[in-house]
């Protein structure tokens, strides 16, 4: 086997031309061998709309059947959250179920990958999960062992779309027509979540103005990432022209969401406020946040009585930590929202974008002034959004990021690289003039907060994000960062 493999920190992700069929099959064989070590006997396969997803799914299904596993297959494109629901549904009768979702999330159309869960719908990553999760899969991938065929493989096809939507509506406390009077611009970037979200919203009585609704794995308007700057300009303009109360943007596999209205996009920290309230998260409960969430938003969370808990980026790691500490909710500024989900005595920590959207819209329907108040809060804060630069190699990338951090430390910024309980943030938080305390936040004049990290699923990429107390300081910080990344180190802007 070659020295490289498609396994990343959170999942497996690769450009379609990077690995041939034998290498992809080897990935599935190693994954299934890992599964057998932890008691897996059943596998669900789901996929999004990417052009390469069908072929990769076929390779995985054939490997699982050959190795003697019970397989439940969703062959049509669906969202990753619906894929997680599928695995939860199957787990009721088959507790030893592993879930494999074929997707590359928000990446450009030339990428493909796999997201992994182990019993019971527990996300794994590198050094995250039983036997260190994907670290064990990588070891098996490279160890040269031949995986012998075994009898007993059997295939079952499922269609659970209606069950998923009924479950999501019930979990959100939304019945037919309950959200009548709301108009929503829904932009799904030709990803797989469009049809299911359209159905749920119209069933609830929402008037939906759809954009890029039909799944199309070519992604004709570019990478399906609603958090990239400018990606939702058309949706915002349509909302302004029509008076739609809410804009929703959803990524390629339906687990990354952006909310806003005709005035622009809201950041996730403020969006989380009505979601926490609508979900009736208990007072004192821990709610995880990533390093990019605005300090002002965290202060507002505290007013709802919940306990904000800093944690690193990473979907697998966040969900695993939610499970460990019993957190009922979590949010990432990248547009990921997580819930504690229950079905027939099973409890998992996972995404359900239909539930998230319905909770938010339920709050808007009940409080016509909500969007104005969220906008007023956000208008107090300048945010850059995430901006990404790609470099010639990883060495240049690391030097560029170190130079940015050193520049702001020299002017008095503090750095944070670990959570209070010692977990590596996998990046560096830069704070100047920010004083975080439980339930409150102190902010000095000219404060700013930022987070820089290397991308785990793309080569030579630095991801940057800043918020600040006013536009003057925020623009300065952004301009100086971009100057160093582009002019000093030759970085190129990417989505």
What do these coordinates show?
Strands 1, 2, 3, 4, 5, 6 and 7 form a seven-stranded mixed β-sheet that branches. Strands 18, 19, 20, 21, 22, 23 and 24 form a seven-stranded antiparallel β-sheet that branches. The protein has a five-stranded mixed β-sheet with strand order 9-8-10-11-12, sandwiched between helices. The chain folds into three domains: 12-159, Alpha-D-Glucose-1,6-Bisphosphate, Chain A, domain 3 (3-Layer(aba) Sandwich); 162-378, Alpha-D-Glucose-1,6-Bisphosphate, subunit A, domain 3 (Alpha-D-Glucose-1,6-Bisphosphate, Chain A, domain 3); 382-494, TATA-Binding Protein. The chain is globular. The chain has 495 residues and is an alpha/beta fold. The two termini are 32 Å apart. Strand 21 (424-437) and strand 22 (440-454) form a beta hairpin. 54% of the residues are buried. It is 35% helix and 27% strand. Helix 1 crosses helix 2 and helix 13 packs antiparallel against helix 14. The model has no long low-confidence stretch (mean pLDDT 94).
């Amino acid at each position: 086997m070659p020295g490289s493999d498609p396994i990343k920190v959170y999942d497996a992700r690769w450009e379609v031309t990077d690995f041939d069929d034998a290498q992809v099959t080897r990935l599935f064989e190693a994954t299934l061998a890992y599964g057998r070590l932890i008691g897996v006997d059943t596998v669900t396969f789901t996929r999004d709309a990417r052009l390469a997803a069908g072929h990769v799914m076929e390779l995985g299904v054939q490997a699982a059947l050959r190795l003697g596993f019970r397989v439940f297959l969703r062959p049509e494109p669906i969202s990753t959250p619906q894929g997680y629901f599928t695995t939860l549904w199957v787990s009721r009768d088959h507790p030893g179920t592993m879930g494999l979702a074929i997707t590359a999330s928000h990446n450009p159309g030339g990428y493909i990958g796999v997201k992994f869960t182990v019993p019971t719908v527990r996300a794994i990553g590198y050094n995250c999960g039983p036997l260190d999760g994907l670290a064990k899969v990588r070891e098996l991938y490279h160890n040269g062992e031949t995986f012998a065929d075994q009898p007993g493989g059997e295939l079952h096809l499922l269609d659970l779309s209606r069950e998923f939507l009924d479950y999501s509506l019930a979990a959100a406390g939304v019945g037919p027509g309950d959200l009548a009077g709301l108009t929503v611009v829904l932009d799904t970037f030709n990803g797989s979540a469009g049809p299911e979200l359209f159905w749920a919203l119209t069933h609830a009585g929402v008037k939906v103005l759809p954009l890029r609704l039909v799944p199309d794995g070519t992604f004709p308007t570019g990478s399906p990432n609603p958090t990239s700057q400018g990606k939702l300009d058309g949706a915002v303009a349509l909302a302004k022209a029509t008076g739609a109360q809410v804009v929703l943007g959803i990524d390629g596999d339906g687990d990354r969401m952006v909310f806003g209205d005709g005035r622009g996009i809201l950041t996730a920290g403020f969006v989380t406020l009505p979601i926490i309230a609508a979900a009736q998260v208990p007072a004192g409960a821990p709610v995880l946040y990533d390093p990019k969430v605005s300090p002002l938003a965290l202060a507002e969370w505290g007013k709802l009585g919940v306990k904000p808990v800093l944690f690193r980026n990473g979907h697998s790691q966040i969900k695993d930590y939610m499970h460990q500490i019993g957190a009922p909710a979590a949010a990432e500024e990248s547009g990921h929202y997580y819930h504690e989900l229950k079905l027939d005595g099973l409890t998992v920590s996972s995404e359900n974008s239909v539930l998230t959207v319905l909770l938010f819209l339920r709050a808007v329907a009940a409080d016509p002034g909500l969007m104005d108040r969220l906008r007023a809060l956000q208008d107090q804060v300048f945010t850059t959004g995430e901006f990404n630069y790609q470099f010639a190699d990883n060495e240049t990338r690391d030097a560029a990021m170190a130079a940015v951090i050193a520049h702001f430390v020299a002017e008095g910024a503090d750095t944070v690289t670990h959570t209070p309980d010692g977990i590596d943030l996998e990046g560096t938080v830069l704070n100047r003039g920010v004083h975080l305390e439980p339930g409150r936040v102190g902010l000095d004049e000219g404060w700013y907060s930022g987070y820089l990290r290397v991308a785990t699923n793309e080569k030579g990429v630095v991801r940057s994000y800043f918020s600040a107390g006013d536009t003057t300081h925020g623009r300065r910080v952004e301009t100086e960062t971009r100057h160093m990344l582009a002019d000093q180190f030759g970085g190129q802007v990417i989505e």
